[in-house]
Amino acid sequence: MNIVAPAGNYEKLEAAIKAGANEVYFGLKGFGARRNNQNLGIKEIINGIDYAHSRGVKTLITLNTLMKDIEIDTAYYNISRIYEHGIDAVIVQDLGFMKFLKENFPELALHGSTQMTVANHVEANKLKELGLSRVVLARELSFEEIKSIREKTDIELEIFVSGSLCISYSGNCYISSFIGGRSGNRGLCAYSCRKKFEDEEGNKAYFLSPNDQLFEIEEINKLKDIGINAIKVEGRKKSSEYVYETVSYYDNIIKGKPRPSESYKLFNRGYSKGYFYLDDKLMNFKYSSNFGYFLGVRIENSNNFRIDDELILGDGVQFVDSDFEKIEGEYVNKITVNGKKVQKAEKNDIVSIGKLPEKTKYIYKNYSKEINDRIIHNIKVSKRFSSIDAELTVEKGKEVILKFSIFNLNGEKIEVVKKGKIIEQEAKKIITEEQISQKVGELGETVFELNSIKINYDGVSFIPFSELKSLKRECVSELEKELLESYKRKSFPKKTYVFGSQKGENEEPIFSALVSNYEQEKVCREMGIEKIYYKQYDVAKEKNIHKSYEIRTNTNLASNLYQVVIGEKNNIKGQSLDWNLNVFNNHTLDLFSEFSNLETVFISPELNYKQLKFIKSDKVKIGMVIYGYLKGMYIEHKIFDKDYKELKGEFYDKYKILKNNLGNIELYLDKPMNLIPELDKIKKFNFDELRLDFTFENSDEVKKVIKSLKTKKGNYNPYSFERGVF
In what order do the strands lie in the sheet with 304-306? Predict the structure, then answer.
């Protein structure tokens, strides 16, 4: 079971590899789900590929965002350079971009990002058919669901085991996109979920902020036992020390040498086991940032507190009030225990570190000098090697022959043979095979270590060890060069794509409606709208797909890939694809046109009017939502017991929240998108279907909206239609 580790920059790449990672993933500047991270430039990526490959580690590049057509087109050049240099796989979210890569780089392995929201075995199998070799499953799955998927698919499966959790299903979170133009699907999430909110009853809390996830020995062994291929460590934005500690912790477990984790002492906003056991420990309503870990409670009317862990000079502490709001922090420069100054205080000591800030209630330790110093030292002195096999032949009257060999990560054998001078002398004293093996195994400051050696020695010849040293140097140099060359390949010329429209210029679009109840449907039909959809569920979890009365497969609207696949299998005609499947470009539109059951595909509302003009197809009808409350999040965890709630953010942002029949939470923006005043402009896009989405509206409000289709009047509220997303 491979450990897939984050490399937010080159320093973290080295730390991850030294800690024991089998694969490292990194972003290209300007791309990927962490676009605002440091990421790597092309030269750093090429150097990083070589650094990893020479040490037996695979490299994965994250291009896991929704892509504009022009970005797909222009990305070809950089991708081809990375492809030619031997990148092992690309992690993708955008199905159209996946299709583009498969068509232009047929030998390239493709992994489906957790942003794809793969939550059942049917979707996993379909994605394998479409060209993926691995999927990172949705983080909302329990162990039993993961096990069920593993039993029903042979695609490689990867599981997140540590790090930050999104409260919404990844790929189905649009909140920072719609309110500020920073799209999580474009790698620029504004972390709106980490803000404090107030509900309709005046309660204030971090209602949408989960604890981080940290699987331990029991969970890792469970995943290993059922045949999970890879476990993923999250942390491209975290420190090198965090990456090194977390990766080495999992490396120890997999190698049967478990130890306690110290990751929580390096970054801590609270920890849980995520959805693994479906328990109620997921959320942390008290705080959402890196508090560190609990150190003590202030003793009333004093500057003293009893510590829950050791404390040394140079540690960092954070002072927190009774409402868990940060006051300030400092590095500890004095410690007093029982009136005496000490350099180190032990657990349960009552200590003073000086005058505590007013209102201090709790003290958290957010920097451990001892742990950080130790890890920094370990990173500096640690090395990672690739194992090689050697064969040495020494016979009197013949040339010395030294052969080094290694298998690359693709299973190809690379051999290097070097010959020395003819042996003419006999040894004056016995040379043992142990001595020979030791000399050959002294590989110095190289990336190799000796795995095995075959010695063909006549037992009498003199072995010139100085010459052997020279042969080793030549073998090592050439072997490393040949090893890195073995990963390189040639790219192909980029294919040409032409996307056209099947619709006449003056053809009027039809108007349709998505409704949430019978009353809304009744009004729509009375007002002349014939094509009606009922709201579906954005995600089909493994545990729910047998609930056909909930996850309907005979619906005329598919809101997840499972419904698309089953719809095609059951030969259902005339289905539409909902916008939450993130059709962001013509390549994705083209991919979905190949499903025989899909008649209409609704385009992502994250696109602006300038981009929408270039979305065209002569293979499938195109739909667009022009009115409706936009869903900002789809949340698996039942955060609230009530069927309806309202939340207000710190920046005057407001939300309406529904709990659906599956117990999932749907978070909507407080005011509906309304593009009807720009209907004339929208009709010029030449789309086939324009849809009105009704969620909270009563009968009168539904009537008013439908009537406005003729007057083109109303409260214009464009969201992404004007500005788009960054």
Answer: 304-306, 350-352, 335-337, 340-342
